[in-house]
Write a structure and sequence with these properties.
It is a single chain. By secondary structure, this protein is of the alpha+beta class. The longest helix is centred in the middle third of the chain and has 24 residues. The two termini are 31 Å apart. It binds heme C (HEC).
């Protein structure tokens, strides 16, 4: 995965360098840097970061196990929801030093992380009959689909408190469900696609939706070599999943993890 190491993401928070500014064309308002006003702003940035980081940590496990998943000769692959989650928790710890299982489950962060952990387990367990199917090679259980399903499951379980979505620049979107909303589109074109945007730097802004104040955080994701089998060249030729390739290049912005917290 093109994942920016989680410690980098947390590092940004630690130094207060996280970009918290208004998005052109959005209803967002300027909010102060995390460090400058720790006492008046909530733990929104940390909560959003951890939700995005856990999605990446778990998606990396699915990525690392693609050849096992697609091995037609093995039935039971031992990839249970619990075992994948354990690997994701360990990935998370390796990159950030934080053991997410120790976050107080009664806190907002703890309950949302728990909802995400439960979503990971449930998505894997539902896919297991297909993952364990002997005789079939490509199962279609790729990291992007896993991440979308976890986002959908989490959004249901978080019950109006938060959403996780993976989106992408409009011209790259394969699944309609992943289409960027107005704010995401705006951030992609006016921030992430600008040559001077620091690679991997998240963007956060307060906004509103359904009469509630929202905290939005978007984390850019870039194509690494393994992505180009499907998203690379020749443009418009079909990949193994049956979608036309986008003709993308190494290091191009491939997607965005978009977290929304409702206050
Ligand atoms: C095996 C082919 C394959 C590989 C390899 C692959 N993708 Fe995809 N990608 C897809 C498919 C198929 C979808 C649509 C998934 C769905 O239906 O939700 C997708 C969707 C996405 C999405 C969600 C937005 C959308 O278009 O629906 C992002 C972001 C993305 N891919 C990025 C990546 C990145 C980054 C990598 C490398 C780390 C990668 N992909 C590797 C096939 C692939």
């Amino acid at each position: 995965m093109p994942d920016v190491p989680v410690h980098h993401i947390f590092g940004l928070l630690a130094v207060g360098a996280i970009v918290l500014s208004s998005g052109t064309g959005s209803t967002g308002q300027m909010i102060a840097s995390a460090q400058a006003s720790v006492d008046i702003i909530s733990d929104d940035p940390e909560v959003a970061r951890s939700l995005a980081a856990l999605l990446r940590a778990s998606r990396s496990v699915i990525s690392a196990n693609q050849s096992l998943i697609n091995n037609p000769d093995i039935g039971d692959k031992g990839l249970s929801g619990r075992s994948i989650l354990a690997l994701a928790i360990s990935n998370y710890k390796k990159t950030s030093g934080i053991d997410i299982t120790t976050i107080n489950p009664k806190s907002r962060q703890g309950s949302l992380i728990k909802a995400e952990m439960d979503s990971i387990v449930s998505v894997i367990d539902m896919a297991r009959p297909s993952i364990d199917k002997k005789g079939t090679a490509f199962k279609g259980f790729i990291p992007a689909i896993f991440a979308r399903l976890v986002g959908e499951e989490f959004t249901r379980r978080a019950n109006g408190k938060a959403t996780i979505k993976v989106t992408a620049p409009d011209e790259l979107v394969r699944n309609r469900k992943a289409r960027p909303d107005a704010l995401e589109s705006d951030v992609i074109t006016t921030k992430f696609l600008k040559p001077d945007w620091r690679p991997g730097e998240p963007y956060s802004v307060t906004d509103s939706a359904n009469g509630k104040t929202t905290f939005r955080m978007m984390v850019p994701d870039y194509y690494v070599q393994s992505c180009l089998d499907c998203h690379g060249s020749p443009k418009n030729s079909l990949d193994i999943t049956g979608y036309p390739r986008e003709g993308a290049n190494l290091g191009d912005l491939g997607g965005v993890i978009s977290i929304t917290l409702y206050r």
